[in-house]
Amino acid sequence: MFKQDSFSTDLSGIPSAIFYLENLIELTIEYQGIKVVPDAIKNFKHLVIFNLNYCIELETLSAYVGFLPLRELNLNGCVSLKTPPIEITRRGHTQTMAFLKRLISGSTPCKRTKLMLVGLGGAGKTSLVRAFLKSHSDKPPEITDGIDIVKWKVPLNQPDDFLEFSVWDFAGQSVYYHTHQFFLAKKAVYVLVWNIRLGAEHAGLDFWLSSICLSRIDLCQDDLKRRYPQITGFFNVSTHTHDNIRELIEAIIKTTLALPYMDEQIPKVWLTFEKLISECKEDILKYDQVADIAPNAGIIDPGEILQSVQFLSDLGSLQYFSSEHLKNYVVINPQWVINVMACIVSIKDSPVKNGRLYHSDIDVIWKNYDTHLHPWILKLTEAFDLTFPVPDQNMNLVPCLLPEEEPEYTWNNDVNETEIREMKITYTFNYLPGMSYRFYISSRSSSFAQFKIRLKILDES
Predict the structure, then answer these.
(1) Which of 110, 117, 137 is nearest to 249 (CA)?
(2) Which of 13, 103, 167, 378 meets the CB 3.0–4.6 Å disulfide criterion with 34?
(3) The sheet that has 356-358: what strands, in order across it?
(4) CA-to-CA distance for 47 and 171, rounded, in angstroms?
(5) What is the pLDDT, as a whole number, of residue 444?
(6) Nearest Cα to Cα of residue 333 among 350, 310, 316
């Protein structure tokens, strides 16, 4: 028997009568308009399969889900889900369950994101950052070398309620475009800056919007807003007179607070762990050193230590790479990675000539970094597809720095008596997206082990 009100629906949208079925083994609630899986889910002590696929309004799972004997928790198509966040669910069932279980010890809403300022060099991005931070200076800002990262904490309406931005100021010179794409993030707010005196057609808007939206666009404001509804507005601002700066800031705050991942619940101990890590003076630590900090935050289990490090990396407060060659270090300061890349690709003079990074020059290229880190840094550039190794030549190729001039080479069309054969393939494009050639070379890098490749790119766009 059920109580008189047992067939009512609570605020979760799930009929409360369901929670009296304590011996339930499998529960499917798919394609429903539920918003929350409530704490009453803990009644299902024998539940092993829980299907919530395509509940597009579902935002929160109770932490008690983590204590159920589930073999399957299916959340495909739950596009509004905040708790657990997507960074956790995409890592699989085990980590999702562990995350939910950890929430029982206490959680806090997270109001953080990246604010990316992009545009051509000299458009005023750095001056705009100064205006955001109310950091006035009569001295013109220096040209940004790579990317500059600063923190911006914005107070909201309630006491102790803040919106935290990690502000990324991208250099606008074209030489940096080859590395910028590695740091463009989905979970971010973008401010595309251009000098209206140059006109939209000369402001690089096509390149930047194509990079962010992954599609070519027509540069008409009305058409842009129609085709890309994520564009929230256009603002004419002056960092000299501060005209419309306040309106821009308010629009950024409003847009950010409306993002679906705002107010994600994060275990408090993970944020304590983050704070302890940030107090380290080093820019990079061995993973074991970071793991030794975790018990001070109340994290003991090695699996949870790895999970929290990966989550903090997704959040952008540190950088961790789980590949076999890189997993032994954690970058505490993300700016460090950018500076490492700028040693190769920069508007300043680079020791890398004609796209060839000779291993004998590594001590010069990264002279400001500990020598024991040099092999790891080289592997990092390979992981970012900035360079790739050429076997048997003690050299890495840096495709974005290859000379544009066509090398002299005479194709041998005659079949000779040796085992060496030459094959010539010509690709012709009416439009070739920027940096496509680099990915082509990188994807063919393993071919160097058996063949000698000569590549000529003709951009006819």
Answers:
(1) 117
(2) 13
(3) 356-358, 395-397, 388-390
(4) 53
(5) 55
(6) 316
Residue with tokens 């950018």: 338
Q: Which residues make Cβ contacts (< 8 Å) with residue 210, sequence separation at least 6?
A: 216, 217, 433, 434
Q: Quote the mean pLDDT of the chain.
A: 81
Q: How confident is the model at residue 286 (pLDDT cuts 50, 70, 90)?
A: very high
Q: Which two tokens stand for residue 54?
A: 């395509």
Burial of 357 (0-12, 13-18, 19+ CB in 10 A): buried
The answer to whether residue 425 scores a pLDDT higher than 80 is: no
Cis geometry, peptide bond prior to residue 38 (ω within 30 degrees of 0): no
Scanning the structure block, which residue is given the tokens 């092999």? 375
pLDDT at 448: 45
CA distance between the termini of the chain: 74
- For the ranges 1-10, 60-69, 350-359, 431-440, the lowest mean pLDDT is seen at 1-10
Residue of 314, 24, 440, 461 whose CA lies nearest to 453: 440
Q: Give the whole-number percent of the chain exceeding pLDDT 70.
A: 75
Q: How far apart are CA 238 and CA 365, in angstroms?
A: 39
CA distance 287 to 372: 15
Q: Residue 56 in contact with residue 80, Cβ under 8 Å?
A: yes
R_g over Cα of the chain: 26
Q: How far apart are CA 352 and CA 341, in angstroms?
A: 12
Report the C-alpha gap between 59 and 84 in whole angstroms: 9
Q: Where are the domains of the chain?
A: 16-81, 112-257
Query: Which residues fall within 8 angstroms of residue 430, CB to CB, at 6 or more apart?
Result: 460, 461
Q: What values do phi and psi take at 435, rounded to 5? A: 70, 10
Longest dimension (CA), the chain: 93
pLDDT at 210: 67
Domain 112-257: CATH class, spelled out: alpha beta
Q: Which of 66-75, 107-116, 223-232 has the largest mean confidence?
A: 66-75
pLDDT tens column, 378-411: 999 988 888 888 888 899 988 878 777 766 766 6
